[in-house]
Design goal:
Elements lengths: L3 H21 L3 H13 L1 H23 L5 H24 L2 H26 L8 H21 L3 H11 L3 H25 L5 H9 L1 H15 L4 H25 L5
Length: 256
């Protein structure tokens, strides 16, 4: 178990990032992972954040299930499920340093793409043409790979869902239901395979109050905030977090 200071820092990171997820429906795990990874390592951080995202998604899904975009939910789930086993395998065979470089590059690219899209076009308000809809669906398979490895497939899913589900509240609850479904699969798989050490499980449970506090704050803001501004903040946080992770990995001697 980490010391009190480390646990407090982890709790603060979880509270802040799950406030963002409470607002938008995405962003908590992928923003939190590099910072918590610096404190305790990427591999133990993944199941801790899986538990937090699962709890938050469960509450949002129960609260707003009538607003789920069910057709998009089914499409996203099927496509991401194809990539999920690849990601589960990937995290077992790749060293921590390579995983860190991969995740850092992924976050910087995803964050930069998101900011570029917002600057160029703002938030989408019309449904996608069928051909573009099908083409963007291919991103969901890669999102499944990333989610299986890191529990953080959100940015690539957001590239798709930001265009396919224009309404803010439908967007949030549909993404949360996806995280609930996929993270249930991952948590059960890790428990059955005994891949979550007891102290990591207890630490994850101990972090739940921070998650609930973050969700409470996020819910208060969700219906009052300018969505464009906060999506911009999340994408910026992705870039900053990716750069932080890359610099930390470089200082530890990681190499591409």
């Amino acid at each position: 178990m980490p010391d009190a200071l480390t646990f407090s820092l982890i709790g603060f990171i979880i509270l802040a990032t799950h406030c963002l997820e409470g607002i938008t429906g995405f962003g908590s795990a992928v923003v939190a992972l590099p910072f918590i990874g610096l404190l305790i390592g990427i591999q133990p951080a993944v199941p801790i954040l899986l538990l937090q995202t699962w709890a938050l998604a469960l509450i949002v899904a129960i609260e707003s299930w009538r607003r789920v975009a069910w057709r998009e939910y089914a499409r996203i789930l099927v496509m991401m499920a194809i990539g999920l086993p690849v990601g589960v395998w990937l995290i077992k065979v790749m060293p921590d340093m390579q995983l860190a470089w991969l995740l850092a590059a992924f976050m910087i690219i995803a964050g930069g793409h998101g900011l570029f899209e917002i600057a160029a076009k703002g938030l989408p308000r019309e449904q996608l043409p069928p051909l573009l809809h099908r083409a963007l669906s291919g991103l969901l398979v890669l999102a499944g790979v990333i989610h299986g490895a890191f529990g953080t497939g959100g940015p690539l899913l957001v590239v798709y869902a930001n265009k396919a589900i224009p309404d803010k509240s439908l967007f949030r609850v549909t993404l949360c239901l996806i995280w609930l479904t996929l993270n249930t699969i991952l948590i059960v798989q890790k428990l059955v395979m005994q891949e979550i050490a007891p102290h990591i499980l207890w630490m994850g449970l101990g972090c739940l109050p921070f998650t609930l506090a973050g969700l409470g704050l996020g819910n208060l803001i969700h219906y009052r905030v300018n969505e464009l501004r906060f999506r911009s903040i999340v994408y910026t946080a992705l870039i900053v977090s990716g750069i932080t992770l890359a610099v930390s990995t470089l200082m530890k001697g990681g190499a591409l």
